[in-house]
Amino acid sequence: MKTAKDGAREEARVVIVVPFLNEEENLPVLYERVRTVMEGRPESWEILFVDDGSSDASARRVAELAGKDERVKLLRLSRNFGHQIAITAGMDHADGDAVVIMDADLQDPPEVIPRLLDKWREGYEVVYAVRSRREGETWLKRLLAAGFYRIFRKMASVEVPLNAGDFRLVDRRVVDALKGVRELHRFVRGLTSWVGYRQGAVYYERAARHAGRTKYPLWKSVNLAWDAVTSFSGAPLRWIMGAGMLVSVGGLVLAVRIIVGRILHPESMQPGWATVVALILVVGGVQLICLGLLGQYVSRVFEESKKRPLYFISEKVGDFGEAGR
After folding, report:
1. Other beta carbons within 10 Å of 209
2. Pairing relation of β-strands 164-171 and 13-20?
3. For residue 147, which of 63, 85, 221 has the smallest C-alpha distance?
4. Can you give the pLDDT at residue 204?
5. How far does CA 235 lie from the centroid of its chain?
6. Is 311 a member of any domain?
7. Whole-model pTM above 0.70?
8. Which residue range(s) make up the domain with 217?
9. Hey, which bits of 31-186 come out as E strands?
């Protein structure tokens, strides 16, 4: 396997990793579009489909494609481990000089892949596909996504490009570096920024989903955002410390006010059960939030300490060579 630098990179091998979950209508279309855009390119290529526990005919569709084209491979996980783990499994088994990560719903257009490769040939080792326009998404999801990226960049110590999802190209050096990062709660787009190396971007218009239903509803997006924050930043812990100090100072000020009022105007001080109850509820609520947040971090430490495998494989279709051993 050969990886030339600074623009040459001739006779390169490209592996396109496609994690999927119940995408039987999209997979044949995706394959045809990839084959069309990659024909005539100087690179040799293959598609590695990663089945993240599909319950429909998706795996059978891919197996049929693999029977017709040896450039198609299938990796079936033993159950649904989640999108980020499926991406990781694909990179673990990709033996290319460059690895392209893209979703199966065709919102990531295969026609962008040649532009990613051209940028890679300029010497970049991570090439992001940055969305200049997002079709088929609600205004609320676009607003929350934009807000998350801006907040995350301020909280974390890594520069994650705005409006860049998992659609990207990573060089062999980056793939090998990421193989040494085995944390359970993964945020792949953050990890590819964290490892460093020379990084660039290409811009594209994200299309609407071709068929089927989204596998990332709002609650899953919120969970991914939470994993991203807790994996790369301790800022929430600092925030709850600040909230605790603020409540303490507020309680101290109120206590001083009551004491002074009792001394100066004892006749005006009336029992205030409602105030006391409200203060207890506020302070108790802050304490519970703080304990819950601390518990989340402790829970992640506990889960990581078990050092369980990230995934298990139930089936492989195709020749995986050295990467599959």
Report:
1. 17
2. unpaired
3. 221
4. 83
5. 19
6. no
7. no
8. 14-233
9. 44-51, 72-77, 98-101, 126-134, 164-171
